[in-house]
Amino acid sequence: MAPSGASVPGWSGVGRVQSLRSLHKLLYVYLFFFLLHRGSAVIQCTVESATVPQNIEGDVLVLAAGTLAYTGPHPSSPTLTSAAECANACGLLPGCNAWTFCSRQSGCGSGCSSWVAKHPKMPAGGPANRDPVEADLPILGFGPWTYPQTQNGCQYSFNTDSTSDAWPYGLCTLKRVPNTKKLKYVPPSKAAPQRTTGVVTESAAAAASADGWISGTLSVSEDCQGLPPNVCRLCGSSKHPDSCLKCAKDARGQFSSKPVNYLISKGSKAQNACAVCAGLADAKQKESCFDCILDNKRCSTCVYGARMWGYGKPDISACLSCAAKKGNRYVGACNACAQSSSPGRCFACLDTQPLKICNTTQRAGSDGCNIGPNDQTPCDLCSNAAQSDDVFKQCLACHTNPNVQQECLDCGNIPTTAATQARCYACVKAARFASYTSTGCAACFSSWLIPGKSQSCLQCVEASTTPFAAKASCSSCVDGSVKRSQALQDKCFGCLKKTQIADYAATCIDQSMRR
After folding, report:
1. What is the 3-state composition of the chain as percent helix, strand, coil, each rounded to the nearest 5?
2. Are the C-beta atoms of 472 and 492 separated by less than 8 Å?
3. Distance between CA 323 and CA 303 in Å, rounded?
């Protein structure tokens, strides 16, 4: 600051005061942006990976990841068939940052026999001995699903019907190393997965490569510390990595009680869903989404993916809004509408149709409810099936009659035009089926009928003189593979109108009708 009475060159009078004010404003602006950027550092969610043709030393988390659950036959066909699959299993397991895979079909290294003597193979569990392994880390023994299952897990020989001292082909060992930048390797002569001392020479590394080992490391950025690498990747690719990481690190999302096999095949269900919730635009709904998955609420159904009858990518935001509005018992219905072919009319249907959806502890048919909490409803069934809004209304009306549920579904599955669907639903209404076992309308539109004979078939089904038990056989009278003459078709239809016939198919559609 200049001494009292002194002047700064170029400054004088009012201009000096204005310049000082401008300078102060500029300093405030700089200070604001400095503090802003200082308080909101860029989140780094990155995963570095490296692969080497050697056996990395490390603390074993899971000795044989592919033996923890039954997934089918194992002879020369392990459940984890490649180094890439082994790396993915490591990426899903909390704490794993290194892996080793035996890629040689004759087995890798040695020391397996002495290892299993100290760490015996785990027994199978469950009523059918097929339950996945449930155990705390580390899992130092082979799981029950080795080949053959009666052997100890080491490399098996068909010629001798016994195991050797080599580690088996397909062995995927998941590990933790202190520093992924400073690795040590197991010497080939003792190529077991336990920690040893010393760093191998180049010649030893070449021998290890010939031994069949492939290893890799996965290291996460500082912001992702404590998270599985795959979760770090998901958060890094999300729209809001910061909120995704906060969700993923929440203690409620840690599934330590889950079988390890679940984690290394699918990962933490809640952690994986954090990235989905982080992508929602509305801040309030985003927080609600996090609570749904972390507390494993019923609304988490909206986040955890498509149902097998979904027609497209779920609209998670719409599903959460629907669930919040209509309550827990509607979550399954909301989820189905959110991925239907016409979500708008499906959601509108949920608001107007008197659906009797059971709560989460009931089954369909109990206490007056007829739709299970995870069952499809007429709203999404008709929304997906109907090829026009008018047909959609016909479909809904059809589903109000419990005796024709199967026919309603079949009419909706006819892969033709809206007019054809409308005609089918009209047939169901006219046929007045008395039991859910009565069918006939949808079959009249089958591709195997004689061309141009759908109307004759429909008239047979709709006729009040055709007994309910006979209606399902109307389409057989005009079966294109039989090629009946017109006279025989008429005779067949006439036969179906008779009463007191125990078996219409045998009596009216038998071989004698083909002459």
Report:
1. 45, 10, 45
2. no
3. 12
* Residues 137, 153: Cα–Cα separation, whole Å: 19
- β-pair partners for 52: 215
**Which spans in 339-404 are helix H?**
343-352, 378-385, 389-399
Cα 228 from Cα 280, distance rounded (Å): 23
d(CA 130, CA 218): 31
Question: In the block, which residue shows the tokens 């690190």?
Answer: 249
Angle between helices 283-294 and 241-248 (to 10 degrees): 20
3-state SS, residue 234: helix
d(CA 94, CA 248): 11
For residue 413, give the nearest of 398, 424, 428 by alpha carbon.
Answer: 424
Q: DSSP letters along 502-513, please?
A: S-HHHHHSSGGG
Pairing mode, strands 156-157 and 162-163: antiparallel
What's the residue count for the chain?
515
Residue 173 vs residues 1, 62, 99, 155: alpha-carbon distances, Å: 68, 6, 6, 15
Distance CA 332, CA 379 (A): 12
Sequence letter at residue 323: A
Give me the DSSP letters along 450-461. Answer: PTT-HHHHHHHH
Average pLDDT over residues 487-492: 92
State if pTM tops 0.85: no
Cα separation, 390 vs 407, whole angstroms: 18
Asked if residues 439 and 473 have their Cβ atoms less than 8 Å apart, the reply is: no
Residue where the block lists tokens 């033709």: 416
Ramachandran angles phi, psi of 100, nearest 5°? -135, 135
**CA–CA gap between residue 199 and residue 183 (Å, rounded):** 8
Tokens of 170: 């397909």
Mean pLDDT of the chain: 80
- 313-350 pLDDT, tens digit per residue, is 788 999 999 999 999 899 999 999 999 989 999 999 99
The Cα–Cα gap between 402 and 420 comes to 22
**How high is the pLDDT of residue 19?**
46
Weakest mean pLDDT among 333-337, 371-375, 380-384: 371-375
So what's the pLDDT on residue 368? 76
What's CA 364's distance to the chain center, in Å? 25
- Show the beta-strand stretches assigned E in 78-171: 98-102, 156-157, 162-163
Q: Three-state SS across 12-52? A: CHHHHHHHHHHHHHHHHHHHHHHHHHHHCCCCCCCEEEEEE
Beta bridge partners, 156, equal: 163
Tokens representing residue 421 in the block: 């669907």
